[in-house]
């Protein structure tokens, strides 16, 4: 009698896509973060090793998010098995990426801290996950973890929202760990819409403890854990004309583009808009107010 082959269970096997913010202007600016970039990487490497130790089938992919570009810097499926080899491979490729991104940043002048290319790294993570989905019926449960600190870039609003809705449709949670002084409206919406966890640690010196206790557990184990919940979510959108965050605006009924002021034509699809509504009473109200003769 032949033994029954055990079924490969993927409930507790994770594919963790980690997006690391490498914005040099953010990490070098004063009063933006209380932790050095080198120490931050030490916490991240320890966290990645702990995730791989939880299950031998777990996979970790790291994507660096810069000012002008983003790229894959580490894949545990292709890297060495020893922890020292993992750390050396990750740090070496990360240094090469930071140097390349700084050279591109010098060519294009940046005022202030600037925003990282979060939309690009999210798109790359989702493309990698789609390849995993199509690899076979048995695959690990994917999720995305954004280690982000740069301010939101309103010019990326459309691309980021498209990535969020794509992750929601693919049932891929987007977790967010904020490293900067301010909250991120984009990542708040991403975690809320996709069912992920949004966290802004109070003490970055204990970043590894936050990462290991909140973001290391697989999706199946999260059903039995009390994870942090966001107090409030900023659902404000950015206008397409000036890239500003607005509370009220005008929406194109054809392509759903958002504008802070009334325009004659939609700059996205070219649709012709009607006249803006005024406070004048409508003709129906005037007829009602006309006295009967």
TrEMBL record:
Highest taxon, organism lineage: Eukaryota
GO molecular function (one): zinc ion binding
Localisation: Nucleus
Main location class: nucleus
Keywords: DNA damage, DNA repair, Metal-binding, Nucleus, Transcription, Transcription regulation, Zinc, Zinc-finger
GO biological process: nucleotide-excision repair; regulation of DNA-templated transcription
InterPro entries the UniProt entry points to: TFIIH_Tfb4/GTF2H3, vWFA_dom_sf
GO cellular component: a single term: transcription factor TFIIH holo complex
Keyword Nucleus part of the UniProt annotation: yes
Family that this chain belongs to: Belongs to the TFB4 family.
Function of the protein: Component of the general transcription and DNA repair factor IIH (TFIIH) core complex, which is involved in general and transcription-coupled nucleotide excision repair (NER) of damaged DNA and, when complexed to CAK, in RNA transcription by RNA polymerase II. In NER, TFIIH acts by opening DNA around the lesion to allow the excision of the damaged oligonucleotide and its replacement by a new DNA fragment. In transcription, TFIIH has an essential role in transcription initiation.
Subunit text: Component of the 7-subunit TFIIH core complex composed of XPB, XPD, TFB1/GTF2H1, GTF2H2/P44, TFB4/GTF2H3, TFB2/GTF2H4 and TFB5/GTF2H5, which is active in NER. The core complex associates with the 3-subunit CDK-activating kinase (CAK) module composed of CYCH1/cyclin H1, CDKD and MAT1/At4g30820 to form the 10-subunit holoenzyme (holo-TFIIH) active in transcription.
Protein's recorded name: General transcription and DNA repair factor IIH subunit TFB4
């Amino acid at each position: 009698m032949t033994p029954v082959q055990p079924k490969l269970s993927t409930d507790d096997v994770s594919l963790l896509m980690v997006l690391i913010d490498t914005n040099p202007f953010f990490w070098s600016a004063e009063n933006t973060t209380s932790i050095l970039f080198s120490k931050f990487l030490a916490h991240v490497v320890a966290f990645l090793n702990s995730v791989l130790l939880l299950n031998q089938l777990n996979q970790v992919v790291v994507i660096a998010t810069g000012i002008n570009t983003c790229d894959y810097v580490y894949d545990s499926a292709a890297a060495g098995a020893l922890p020292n080899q993992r750390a050396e491979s990750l740090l070496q490729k990360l240094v090469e990426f930071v140097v390349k991104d700084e050279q591109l940043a010098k060519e294009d002048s940046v005022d202030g801290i600037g925003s990282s290319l979060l939309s690009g790294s999210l798109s790359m993570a989702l493309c990698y996950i789609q390849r995993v989905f199509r690899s076979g019926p048995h695959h690990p449960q994917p999720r995305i973890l954004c280690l982000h600190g740069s301010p939101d870039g309103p010019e990326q609003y459309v691309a980021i929202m498209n990535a969020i809705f794509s992750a929601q449709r693919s049932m891929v949670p987007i977790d967010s760990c904020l490293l900067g002084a301010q909250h991120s409206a984009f990542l708040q919406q991403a975690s809320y819409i996709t069912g992920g966890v949004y966290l802004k640690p109070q003490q970055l010196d204990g970043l590894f403890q936050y990462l290991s206790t909140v973001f290391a557990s697989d999706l199946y184990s999260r059903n039995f854990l009390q994870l942090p919940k966001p107090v409030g979510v900023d659902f404000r959108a950015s206008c397409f004309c000036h890239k500003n965050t607005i509370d009220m605006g005008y929406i194109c009924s054809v392509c759903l583009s958002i504008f802070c002021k009334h325009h004659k034509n939609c700059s996205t699809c070219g649709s012709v808009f009607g006249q803006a509504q005024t406070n004048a009473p409508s003709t129906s109200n005037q007829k009602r107010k006309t006295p009967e003769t």
